[in-house]
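Hi there,

I know you've been waiting on this one. I reran it after we fixed the sequence typo, so this is the corrected version. Both the input and the resulting structure follow.
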Amino acid sequence: MALNNSQYDTIIRSYEQKQLHNRNLLEKRYETIYAVLPELKTIRQTISELSVKQARKLLEGDDSALSELKIQIKALTDKAKSLLSENGYPEDYLEPIYECKDCKDTGYIGSQTVIDESDVSYDHILFLSVRF
């Protein structure tokens, strides 16, 4: 027996609530961490500026721009993780928050829906929808 539209909408609404809740938590984390460690805000701004700069280079035909950007972002990301760790925060403190690491609270893994009773994940979806 397949889900009816009402059941599907209820589950999707639940996921949307989880996503909104977790985005708000992450925004609060950023506010808190920027107050304590303003260097992290500078690192984030630097990554944005470098991304734009390297995108321009790439559009101008510089084939090495993307690989250079990846190296620069990795160095800045490592520096940010070190700052977090040195100040008692987990390295992933500013990463998106998910209750389900598999579907990232969307109900989908890749292009495959996990909201289907024939799928093993159906129980998982129902479990998540009542937990929040």
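Quick highlight: Helices lie at 5-36, 38-59, 65-86, 122-131.

Best,
R. S.
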